[in-house]
Design a protein that fits this description.
With about 130 residues, the protein is α+β, with helices and mostly antiparallel strands. It is built from three helices and six strands. A six-stranded mixed sheet has the order 1-2-3-6-4-5, with helices on one face. Strand 4, helix 3 and strand 5 form a beta-alpha-beta unit.
Length: about 130
């Protein structure tokens, strides 16, 4: 028998038009889609500013986690895609600070040529245990 499953939309209209859910829960595992620094109209926010985009991405991740009664302390794995690794490494303290001294997740960070929107510099995909 398959584990119970549910989905969540942070920006329902845009997510539906792109054909995905912001998150999918299967049993006690929450899979969070790659989060970008965009507003509710999917317009990139903080162009050219990696630190601002990292903050915006974590705002979206935290909002998604909150919908499941969870927080960043539940994140066990992150896959981070960036268009400029040097800029990301300079802004990484912003990411680490969001964990407030708690346990940090396992992380893979990869530099890519571009993301879904050209002005986006970082995309973070997460897995949480609830």
């Amino acid at each position: 028998m398959a584990a119970p499953s549910s989905t969540f939309h942070l920006r329902a209209e845009g997510e539906m038009s792109f054909g995905y859910s912001q998150a999918r829960r299967v049993g006690n595992t929450l899979y969070i889609s790659g989060s970008l620094s965009v507003n509710d109209r999917f317009e990139p926010q903080g162009p050219g500013d990696m630190a601002a985009q990292v903050r915006n991405v974590y705002d979206a991740i935290e909002a998604t986690l909150a919908a499941f009664g969870a927080s960043l302390s539940n994140i066990v794995k992150e896959n981070i895609f960036v268009t400029d690794m040097a800029a990301f490494l300079e802004a990484n303290a912003v990411r680490v600070a969001r964990y407030k001294g708690g346990l940090l997740p396992a992380v893979t960070a990869v530099e890519v040529r571009r993301l879904a929107f050209e002005a986006c510099l970082v995309e973070i995909e997460s897995v949480a245990e609830l």
